[in-house]
């Protein structure tokens, strides 16, 4: 296990991302799929206090018509869900991911500390044929959108379906995270045309269902459109390193939990928040 983690850390530091195959066990993967389908297939049954956390593909197309003329219409999207925010509030199966051992093992290794903390969790169902990418599939860094005291953020993408180029898989520019925090925060990195990048630098993430992708938010990446006949469902979880604090007034469900912390106050918080796990 130690040698495996050493290799993961080396790849992450060199490339800005790493893929861990079969991170989720079979039972957990199935429970997550069922939980997500319970939401996306029954949107009218979502409680009123959570309904506002659903964002639909049709709304995205109406907000960005310049990307989709002649490709897909808002009407064709129907009730396809684009994003589910604050996912832990919908089902304990999602909330328990904050303490999923294998996930935390990888994060503790990548952060080189047990004091990393949870920020937020969301789902991107990316429906068959009408699941759309971010910024028309253009590359970007997440850092200009972040509001933290430091740029030390890792996003973990849990793949509930196979990820590949055909279904709008995530692409990365290998090694592009090796820049200063100040440079990474520049507004120009919110949208970078693919034509400005060398094809040789771009890597398509390909992995089976149950795998996880971990990436440094400084790295240039892109999420494409899903025009395949199958959904590409993912759960995305954002984490920050030790001593990284938010500067935004916005807070998410369970933000600030430190599931591996060795500090007594945080360990007590974990036991009170998730007594069935801690």
Mind explaining what this structure looks like?
- The chain has 278 residues and is an alpha+beta fold.
- It has one domain (2-273): Sandwich (Jelly Rolls), CATH 2.60.120.
- Helix content is 26%, strand content 17%.
- It has nine helices and ten strands.
- The protein has helices at residues 2-15, 26-40, 48-51, 57-63, 74-77, 92-95, 101-111, 181-184, 264-273; strands at residues 17-20, 54-56, 81-84, 117-124, 153-159, 170-173, 202-204, 212-216, 221-223, 234-240.
- The strands form three sheets. It has a five-stranded antiparallel beta sheet with strand order 1-8-5-10-4. It has a three-stranded antiparallel beta sheet with strand order 7-6-9, with no helix packed on it. A two-stranded antiparallel sheet has the order 2-3.
- The chain is globular and about 55 Å long.
- The mean pLDDT is 96.
List the helices and strands and how they pair.
Elements: H1 2-15, E1 17-20, H2 26-40, H3 48-51, E2 54-56, H4 57-63, H5 74-77, E3 81-84, H6 92-95, H7 101-111, E4 117-124, E5 153-159, E6 170-173, H8 181-184, E7 202-204, E8 212-216, E9 221-223, E10 234-240, H9 264-273
Antiparallel strand pairs: 1-8, 2-3, 4-10, 5-8, 5-10, 6-7, 6-9
